[in-house]
Amino acid sequence: MADTATTTDTRVPTVIADGVHVIYKVHGAGARKGGATAALSRVFSRRPSPGMKEVHAVKGVTFTAHKGEAIGLIGSNGSGKSTLLAAIAGLQPVARGRIYSHGQPSLLGVNAALMNDLTGERNVVLGGLAMGMSKQQIRERYQGIVDFSGINEKDDFISLPMRTYSSGMGARLRFSIAAAKDHDVLMIDEALATGDAAFQRRSQARIEELREHAGTVFLVSHSINTVRETCDRAIWLEAGVLRMDGPSAEVCDAYEAFTAGR
Ligand SMILES: Nc1ncnc2c1ncn2[C@@H]1O[C@H](COP(=O)(O)OP(=O)(O)OP(=O)(O)O)[C@@H](O)[C@H]1O
């Protein structure tokens, strides 16, 4: 396993996770049991509701990410990958531990909020503004974003509302908007899995460029091959626990051996 915290390390840290725990509180079945008096008494005694369930999604994860790294997050379904990214982006509170980051990490998920009733064109503008780009910068990069997404390859889809797009087209446009800006820390959740081969090649090249501009890229993917090809480092989570952190080839091999044995 790579030792990323040696005292002679001259690399510049961008994200430090220090013993991070994330716990979801789920108000499930039975939450209404006991009536109003019992609920009020629980409020005063600070006892949790009987229907409240806790999901301990991330358990004491520690790592340091550096400028210029592309880090793949791998692990079985429900192992806490998306939750960890949301915590790094500041979208999910941390129950224990700390996260330090350089700049504002941008989370690009397949579910990233674009407006379905607006055209792709309006979404490019709004998405750019939301990322802090000026109108002038958006105007300059608009055509590049549309070309990168490949949305207009078959027809003039960019002037249609996003609800008319396939899920792959939507994901490609989201990636293209986010990738138009140089991010200190860019986190991508499964976006690459949705594009076709040509789009994946463009995305990989763009991730390479983002790294060269000294940013850090995190990529959550179920495709081990994508992580091998795109990332130099991988972090493997299993049931919320960090199982392995090191060069992506080694971590992917170990993960594949683990999944083959199950
Ligand atoms: N909003 C939520 N409320 C309650 N529990 C949640 C919530 N989101 C995720 N979880 C739970 O937290 C755990 C980690 O989920 P998470 O989505 O982070 O895993 P993942 O590794 O990204 O999964 P996948 O590979 O299936 O996308 C799972 O047990 C999941 O059921």
TrEMBL record:
User: What keywords tag this UniProt record?
Assistant: ATP-binding, Nucleotide-binding, Transport
Does this UniProt record's set of keywords contain Phosphoprotein? no
Query: Which stretches make up the ABC transporter domain?
Result: 38-259
Q: Name one GO molecular function term.
A: ATP binding
**Coiled-coil residues:** none
Q: Does the keyword Aminoacyl-tRNA synthetase apply?
A: no
One Pfam family cited in the UniProt record for this chain: ABC_tran
InterPro entries registered for this protein in UniProt: AAA+_ATPase, ABC_transporter-like_ATP-bd, ABC_transpr_TagH-like, Bact_Polysacc_Export_ATP-bd, P-loop_NTPase
Superkingdom as given in the UniProt entry? Bacteria
What SUPFAM superfamilies does the entry give? P-loop containing nucleoside triphosphate hydrolases
For this chain, the family text in UniProt reads:
Belongs to the ABC transporter superfamily.
Q: What is this protein called?
A: Teichoic acid transport system ATP-binding protein
